[in-house]
Amino acid sequence: MIIGVGTDIIEIARIEKAINNTNGFVEKLFTKKELELFKSKNMRAEVIAGNFAAKEAISKAIGTGVRSFSLKDIEVLRDELGKPIATLNENIIKILKVSSFKLNISISHNNTSAIAFAILEDM
Q1: Which of 72, 104, 99, 71 is nearest to 86 (CA)?
Q2: Helices 45-62 & 32-40, crossing angle to 10 degrees?
Q3: I need a labelling partner for 105 at 20 to 30 A (CA). Which of 17, 34, 89, 115 fits?
Q4: pTM check: above 0.90
């Protein structure tokens, strides 16, 4: 059964500006493994924007937005084929109040925007 659906879109230029003008922007919002992913992708703003949009979409699928947890509580990496895979930490799992769940996410971008969708299912 679907618990929630979320989507988010963000202008890549907004993320570029935050990266360049906000000290520690990526370190405040992303995990160490995500930072490693970004470095492996040459810190491309569209990759960072995609992950940011995914975290926001997931927070909307959970139904709380980012009120009850930090964006660092969500980790978005890629599998060997490049598919985005999200891991939720214990702070979020407590909020969900389900024993088993499945989280599907999709990330895409063009020259100006990044978009993500999240579908959260009770198993």
Answers
A1: 104
A2: 140
A3: 17
A4: yes
Assess whether 109 carries a catalytic annotation.
yes
Q: Is 79 annotated in some ligand binding site?
A: no
Rounded to whole angstroms, how far apart are CA atoms 60 and 44?
25
The structural domains of the chain, with segments of one domain joined by +, span 2-122
Q: Is 122 annotated as a binding residue?
A: no
Dmax over CA atoms of the chain, in Å, equals: 42
Domain 2-122 top-level CATH class: alpha beta
Which one of the listed residues 17, 28, 55, 60 is annotated catalytic? Answer: 60
Using CA atoms, how far apart are residues 41 and 52, in angstroms rounded to an integer? 15
pLDDT 10s digits, 35-73: 999 999 999 999 999 999 999 999 999 987 677 788 999
pLDDT at 89 > cutoff 80 = yes
